[in-house]
Amino acid sequence: MRHCGIPRLVIAAPQGRSGKTITTIGLLSALKKAGCRVQPYKKGPDFIDPSWMTRITGRFCRNLDSFLMDRETIRASLARTAGDADLVVVEGAMGLFDGVDLEGSGSTAEIAKAIGAPVILVVDTTRMTRSVAAMVSGYRHFDPEVRVAGVILNKVARPRHEQMLRAAIRHYCGIPVLGVIPKGQKLNIPDRHLGLVPALESDEQALTVDGAGGAAGEYLDLPAIMEVAGSAAPLEVKKHPLLDIPLLREPRLAGLKPETPRAKVAVFMDRAFSFYYPDNLESLVAAGAELVPVNALSDKRLPDFDAAYIGGGFPEVFADGLAANETLRAHLRERIESGLPVYAECGGLMYLGRKIAWRGRDYPMTGALPYDVVMMDRPQGHGYITLRVENQSLYYNKGEELKGHEFHHSRLENLEREKIRFAFGVTRGYGLDGERDGIIYKNVLACYTHLHALATPDWAKRLVRAGIRHRKLN
Question: At a CB cut-off of 8 Å and minimum separation 6, what does 230 contact?
Fold first, then answer.
């Protein structure tokens, strides 16, 4: 048993689109400016918000998810990754008590309880005065195990509006107002169907978000917020295998390497493919992988490696650049035909097909797998997904059950089923077609499901093992 006494807090809201993200970015910016070593976390499955939180703090943002992870794993993850930080900030998702069932499983509230953190509630005060007190009071008393310790008022119209809101909360709720963020275009940040635009995608948008975060941070009562974080009681953490995995300290692949590499695993990491959980990369290294970066937009030849991991992203946005790199696409296709083990998620699945059809144009991709990808206006899969392994592969055994998540606006067409096997049956979610997910072709497994290594601990070992086997055979 060990104790984690680090100050910590959760930024939550009554509902989505209340201003959690701009508030969190503002808080992180202000803390960083004050010289604080702050470790950011995001509740639930998400790559995009964490990319900005990583950029601002210079530390990998981690995900805490009570649907994918049990409580002890969540506690161990926090203790392992925040040990040298001055303060922990967790950004929630959706409404504070919104989960996957009536009991609120998987909610932000469950994360707050798991890590024993006070909650700061961000309230969109548009067209609201005294009613703010009724709302805040309801959230304070809904679950006695969740401590709502303060409020940040967002989209406040004018000084008189602020005075009325403050008076109502002071009189009826008895908790402090920790910030007042006014309405204003300068606090808007660019977004897309999954939320913010990824941090690596555009330098211009990065400056916009940095500016919005800096502006929002000026409206927060930083000393009072730090006092709330410091009120968290020490957290008891049981001995856990996760605590022994080495940390990727800096947001770059070169920051971690095993003492005795057993296999080289290529990671396609660039503006098109940027959706990677740091825990997945660390788990690969812990399993003996030397990570080799590949840029699908600029590298003309593949480096020497034994297996590959192609994560998610928005390859359709960079489809022109991916298509133009014919040499790399051809080289990857040849390696796959010769038996290269490849694990591809969502954007990676799109890249391995014959083409991506988007906005009236067709963009050739690697052509390694027999299908076309078509971008749709509406989400095709969005949320948690559970799977049962139907066909054996290098990465999963038949009969295993998996948990993950999916976020995709694309679907597959013209799939040549006689050339592939389906990896999974879908028991919750959508996957490829509502019934199946995962395409197995030679030593490739490509799926819409994003996995998290803390929920699927054997995945990294199996990918490294597949790379070792491939190297010996070649």
Answer: 7
Residue 3 burial (CB count, 10 A): 11
CATH code given to domain 2-237: 3.40.50.300
What does each of the 474 residues of the chain score in pLDDT, given as a tens digit? 676 789 999 999 999 989 999 899 999 999 998 999 999 999 999 998 998 899 899 899 999 999 999 999 999 999 999 989 999 999 999 999 999 999 999 999 999 999 999 999 999 999 999 999 999 999 999 999 999 999 999 999 999 999 999 999 999 999 999 999 998 756 665 554 444 456 555 555 666 666 766 777 789 999 999 999 999 999 999 888 888 888 876 656 666 788 899 999 999 999 999 999 999 999 999 999 999 999 999 999 999 999 999 999 999 999 999 999 999 999 999 999 999 999 999 999 999 999 999 999 999 999 999 999 999 999 999 999 999 999 999 999 999 999 999 999 999 999 999 999 999 999 999 999 999 999 999 999 999 999 999 999 999 999 999 999 999 998
The Cα 281–Cα 81 span in angstroms is 14
Please count the other Cβ atoms lying within 10 Å of the Cβ belonging to residue 360. 5
Look up 346 and say whether it is catalytic. yes
Tell me the C-alpha distance between 446 and 305, whole Å. Answer: 19
Q: Which residues contact 70 (CB under 8 A, 6 or more apart)?
A: none
Same fold for the pair 2-237 and 250-473:
yes
Residue 208 parent element (H or E)? helix 203-217
Residues 4, 61, 173, 346: which is the catalytic one? 346
Domain-by-domain residue ranges, the chain? 2-237, 250-473
- Domain with residues 250-473, CATH architecture: 3-Layer(aba) Sandwich (3.40)
Dump the DSSP string for 137-164: HHHHHS-TTS-EEEEEEEEE-SHHHHHH
